[in-house]
Amino acid sequence: MLEGKDFLHARYGAHFGPRVKALRELAGVSVAELSEATGLGRRSLYKLEDGEINNPKLGLLLSLRTALKLRSIEELLGDLPEFPSVSYSPGDSAK
Fold it and tell me: Count of domains in the chain?
């Protein structure tokens, strides 16, 4: 299980592939379990975690979010410190 600096990096700063791996480990999910849950082959999953697969399709992102029991895709993708996710109410106007 990741703690301290490793957890913060996984939560806020890792590239997508290593972030998926860190979140998988935090969830206690094996590569085999994640492969089965997402339909992505084990070899492809290892490539994804190693950063060799870029620009995953929305369907895979949704499968990963569900399999890792995340509340949102933002948790999977992470915020960039310069561009944090912002929620707007219908009455808010653009600034």
Answer: 1
